[in-house]
Write a structure and sequence with these properties.
With 251 residues, the protein is α/β, with parallel strands linked by helices. It contains nine helices and seven strands. The radius of gyration is 18 Å and the shape is globular. The chain binds NADP nicotinamide-adenine-dinucleotide phosphate.
Amino acid sequence: MNLTGNTILITGGTSGIGRALAEAFHALGNKVIISGRRQVLLDEITAAHPGMSGLQLDLDDPDEIEVFAVRIRREFPGLNVLMNNAGVFKVEDLTCDNIDISLARQTIQTNILSVLQLTAGLLPLLRAQPRSTVLATSSGLAFVPRAAYPSYCGSKAFIHAWLQALRFQLRDTSVEVLELAPPYVQTELGGPEQASDPRAMPLAEYIAEVMALLANPNPPRGEILVKRVEGLRWAEKNGTHEKTFAALNAI
Ligand SMILES: NC(=O)c1ccc[n+]([C@@H]2O[C@H](COP(=O)([O-])OP(=O)(O)OC[C@H]3O[C@@H](n4cnc5c(N)ncnc54)[C@H](OP(=O)(O)O)[C@@H]3O)[C@@H](O)[C@H]2O)c1
C-alpha cells in the first residue's frame, strides 16, 4: 500500500499496535481515524495528534457496528484503508467442570464477527476507491497455538483463512487484502506485565519493521511478517511445529 495520501480507519487504535500504527501513519500525513471503547484515550490521542479523529465503538455490539459503518461512509467518503486491528486475548480453562463458554463467545465476537461485519459495511466504499486496502490483524498463534488461549488462537486461524478467501474474491478489484501477523509484542494485550516483558518484541521496533513491509506494493501472499514471527508462521512447513508447540506451551 502507499504509505501516504490515505484515509485510514484503525480499530483498536486506543492502545498497543493500533495506536502505534495510527501515530506512524499520522506522522506521514495520512488522515487517520481511530476507534475503541475508551473515550478518555480517544480524546487524549487525538488531542496530541491534530487532524486525527477518534470515534467510540464497541465491537461487541453489532447494532453499534452497523451505525458506525454508516457514519464512516457519510463522514469519510474518501476512506481507502480499513485496519481491523482490535482484539482480545483470554485464558480459557477447558479442564474444569463448568467451562465458561462466554469467554469463547466474546472472543469470537470481537476477533471474528466484528471484523466480518465492519468489513462488509465498508467494502462497497473501499471497492469504489481507485486503490484501497483491507487489513486484519491475526497472530503468530494462528499457526502454532498457545493452549491456554484456545478460542483466541482459533479466532486468529479463522482470520488467516478468511483473509485468503477474501483476497481471492477481490483479486480483480481495486482492494488489496493484507494480513498483519504479529509475534509476541510489548503491549498490554495479555496484561500490564507484557508491555515490559523482555521476551516480547519492543513495540517501536515492531512498528518500524511493519511500516517498511507495508511500503512493499506486493508483499508475498499479502502477509506482513516481521522476522520474529517467521518461526511460528513456517513451523508446519519447516517440520518444526511439534517442537515449537512444545516450547510455546512449556510450563
Ligand atoms: N501484542 C501481541 O503480542 C500480539 C501478538 C499477536 C497478535 N496481536 C493482535 O494485535 C491486535 C492489537 O493488540 P495489542 O497487542 O495492540 O493489544 P491492546 O493494546 O490490548 O489493544 C487492543 C485494542 O483493541 C481494542 N478493543 C478490544 N476489545 C474491543 C471492543 N469490544 N470494542 C472495540 N475495541 C476493542 C482496545 O480498545 P478499547 O479497550 O479502548 O476498546 C485496544 O485498542 C489484536 O488483534 C491482537 O490479537 C497482538
